[in-house]
Amino acid sequence: MSKDNTILLFITRTDDFKIKEYRIAHTIAAGYIFEEPDEEDGFNNKHVIELFKDSKIFTDAYEAIGAACLLEEQIGYVEYGVRVYNFCHLWFPKTS
To answer: Against a cut of 0.90, is the pTM above it?
Structure first.
């Protein structure tokens, strides 16, 4: 039976564009973050905020990748593994 789940590693920049930020989430049907995208970003800000709102923010790529792999091990079976969405040319959407 298909689980249709994945671990997402979402990369953006800080507001000053100096530091990359890495957020991790486990989800099913990850493609919904691209449904009805906001014109500027290419993804749906509302869905991205909802998915990653409680995520720890990493600033080290290796630490983020390690955390994503550890989460994958803890879950047990992740059908689509770890997916990286690199939006490092953008900052994370604001909640307000």
So the answer is: no
